[in-house]
């Protein structure tokens, strides 16, 4: 058996009896956006620490647990806290949680993150629906012998972000009167924020937002055939686009400020996805 698949099944086996239900949607909560999981009726919690062989996040303010709930009747597993490549984990570790949620039964992966806006028409506090991504600056999580149990060796990437899910999010934002930007997310390794020259590079390459997560998870989930969608909270403009130096505090403060709008958008979009997909 493929080693990646073997590890995944071992991980899954160690938690199987403790999973209260089969999720339809897997929601990854980004930096500062995790409080959505504190506001739902929690039906089950799995601490990452309690999962055998599971990578555990070290970033301050990142809780590390799966939260199980229903959002207006839709069974959802949320990741409150994710694992980042810059913490020193392998890419296999970083994408293990997303793969595990697929194993639990999730068909849809809803990715969220805090990101730097590099598009001049964006401002801090905006939301950007991810329409496509550039993952070429981080190692692919699919490198190594292919886990045929999960997906094909060479997988199509024409529509990583599902067009139907994009339309649901677009329509939801319109109905809730939320100004939703759209664009391409580019992942860098971090953990340092970009230099002004790197921000210009991201823009020149076609990126609208830059961050340190998400794209690799989408690569692994696309490989497994999940339907994927994503929203970035533009927590700041890229370095050099304003006079201010960047800090993690600013990122967290902006995410906090817009959290209520984010919760409304994500909750309603998931409700509609449950009905329509
Ligand atoms: N760059 C990279 N990652 C980020 C940023 C940024 O400006 N803001 C939030 N996450």
Brief descriptors of the model:
five-stranded mixed beta barrel; 9 strands; binds hypoxanthine; alpha/beta
Structural class: alpha/beta
Let me know the average pLDDT. 93
Order of strands in the sheet with the most strands?
A: 5-8-7-6-9
Q: Name the hetero compounds present.
A: hypoxanthine
Apparent shape = globular
The major β-sheet equals:
5 strands, mixed, barrel
Task: Describe the 3D structure.
31% of the residues lie in helices and 23% in strands. With 277 residues, it is α/β, with parallel strands linked by helices. It has a five-stranded mixed barrel with strand order 5-8-7-6-9, surrounded by four helices. α4 (196-204) links the parallel β7 (180-187) and β8. The radius of gyration is 17 Å and the shape is globular. The model has no long low-confidence stretch (mean pLDDT 93). The site of hypoxanthine (HPA) has 13 residues, from β5, β8 and β9. Keywords: Glycosyltransferase, Transferase. Pathway: Purine metabolism; purine nucleoside salvage. It is an enzyme of class 2 (transferase).
């Amino acid at each position: 058996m493929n080693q990646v698949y073997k590890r995944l099944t071992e991980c899954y086996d160690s938690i199987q009896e403790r999973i209260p239900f089969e999720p339809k949607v897997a929601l990854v909560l980004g930096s500062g956006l995790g409080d959505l999981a504190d506001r739902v009726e929690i039906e089950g919690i799995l601490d990452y620490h309690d999962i055998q062989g599971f990578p555990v996040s070290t970033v301050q303010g990142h809780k590390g647990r799966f939260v199980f709930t229903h959002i207006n009747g839709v069974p959802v597993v949320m990741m409150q806290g994710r694992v980042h490549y810059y913490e020193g984990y392998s890419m296999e570790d970083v994408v293990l949680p997303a793969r595990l949620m697929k194993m639990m039964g999730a068909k849809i992966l809803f990715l969220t993150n805090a990101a730097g806006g590099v598009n001049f028409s964006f401002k801090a506090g905006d939301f950007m629906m991810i329409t496509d991504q550039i993952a070429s600056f981080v190692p692919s999580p699919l490198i190594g012998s292919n886990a045929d149990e999960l997906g094909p060796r060479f997988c199509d990437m024409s529509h990583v972000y599902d067009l139907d899910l994009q339309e649901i999010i677009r329509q939801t934002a319109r109905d809730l009167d939320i100004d939703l930007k759209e664009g391409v997310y580019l992942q860098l390794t971090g953990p340092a924020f970009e230099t002004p020259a790197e921000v210009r590079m991201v823009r020149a390459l076609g990126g609208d937002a830059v961050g340190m997560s998400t794209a690799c998870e989408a690569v692994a989930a696309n490989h497994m055939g999940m339907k994927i969608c994503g929203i970035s909270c533009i927590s700041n403009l890229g370095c050099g686009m304003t006079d201010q130096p960047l800090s993690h505090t600013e990122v967290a403060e902006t995410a906090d400020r817009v959290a209520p709008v984010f919760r409304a958008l994500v909750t309603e979009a998931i409700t509609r996805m449950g009905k329509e997909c």
